[in-house]
Amino acid sequence: MKEKTLSSAEIRGSERTALSVENLEIGYRASRGIVHAVRGVSFDLLEGESLALIGESGSGKTTMGLSLVRLLPTSAKVFSGKIIFKDDTGRQLDVLNLEKEGLRRFRWEQCAMVFQSALNALNPVLRVRDHFLDTYKSHASSGRVDEKKVIERAKEVLRFVQLDPDRVLNSFPHELSGGMRQRVMIALGLLLNPKVIILDEPTTALDVITQRAIIDVIRRLKQEHEFAMIFISHDLSLAAELADRVATMYAGRVIEIGNVEDVFYKPCHPYTVGLLRAVPTLEGGRKDLISIPGSPPDLIDMPSGCKFHPRCPYATQQCMEEEPPLIDVGNNHGAACWHWQRVIQDWEAGKDAYERDSD
Ligand SMILES: Nc1ncnc2c1ncn2[C@@H]1O[C@H](COP(=O)(O)OP(=O)(O)OP(=O)(O)O)[C@@H](O)[C@H]1O
């Protein structure tokens, strides 16, 4: 049977699209060859929607995020693809071809990224208030800077992330805890009221209580504001809690995408199943935890066919020969697996392919 492939329009076509990524290919130059970090990624982000990019370390999530704000390191090259952003006036911006001035305004004002390394991203010799003033001066499109107004706005966003503005604005970064610095970074991201905010591992490296506080801030962002969000995480529980949609990445590709309920409760790709099996549940869940055997592929010299086949309990000859497209499994849910029907049947029957094969 010929499977129907999920087109990028079906992945989420809508006039309410805030950001559209089409067939993006990105590689890094390395001494051994090209690291194929992002391979043919397409998705749309709707206005006000939150999309989680999940996957193991090295699957290309951060590269994907950095490309959206054109902050890739110089060793990276975008081989092909498009990133289209719709601004507030409905104008479409071709992000990969923005000139210097357009790019300056696009970053922070339209699309802000809060980095994984947020804890070290603040300049240690600048007080927090100067970070807000500098960000405003370098990125706001409105000509003259009214410092009083900027500080008023800074106070507003700091209060939103539940920090005391009077204390924090006059502090140097080292005077703040890790969780407070993370919140300052989120507040900076909100300063110019962007339409899209990208959060890269927003809770990694924070203790559990602080993680909870950050999750609450992100949830309020989602509920009370119109931000569209992309958050990058290897923490599936964070994705389950905060995302409307989930995209699983493996070896630089989106191998499953759909509504959070579909991807987490009806996974159709064996890799997503493997990730879900590795999440501990309170009640001890589906038997013992089993991690995915093997390790992610070498992105310079990848396996033939489906890049997951060497680790996959469902792999057949076809998987070794042909890389599956993102197949339409219904309800705007796509999975790049030739055997998705067996995968979902086994999942629904509580059968564990990983366990069965390791017997
Ligand atoms: N500056 C770079 N030069 C060469 N290769 C790089 C560079 N940055 C990332 N890579 C490689 O690109 C691939 C994708 O990395 P990326 O950081 O995007 O993945 P990730 O899923 O975000 O992982 P993590 O959660 O560890 O950040 C990896 O193989 C990584 O080693």
From TrEMBL:
Q: Give yes or no: UniProt keyword Mitochondrion.
A: no
Q: Which Gene3D superfamilies match?
A: P-loop containing nucleotide triphosphate hydrolases
What GO molecular function annotations does the UniProt record carry, in alphabetical order? ATP binding; ATP hydrolysis activity
InterPro entries, alphabetically?
A: AAA+_ATPase (IPR003593), ABC_transporter-like_ATP-bd (IPR003439), ABC_transporter-like_CS (IPR017871), Oligopep_ABC_C (IPR013563), P-loop_NTPase (IPR027417)
> What stretch or stretches form a coiled coil here?
none
Q: Which SUPFAM superfamilies match?
A: P-loop containing nucleoside triphosphate hydrolases
Domain ABC transporter: residue ranges: 21-276
- Gene Ontology biological-process entries: peptide transport
**Sorted alphabetically, which PROSITE patterns does this protein's record hold?**
ABC_TRANSPORTER_1, ABC_TRANSPORTER_2
Per UniProt, the keywords (alphabetical) are:
ATP-binding, Nucleotide-binding, Transport
Q: Which NCBIfam families match?
A: oligo_HPY
Which family does this protein fall into? Belongs to the ABC transporter superfamily.
Q: What is this protein called?
A: Oligopeptide/dipeptide ABC transporter, ATPase subunit
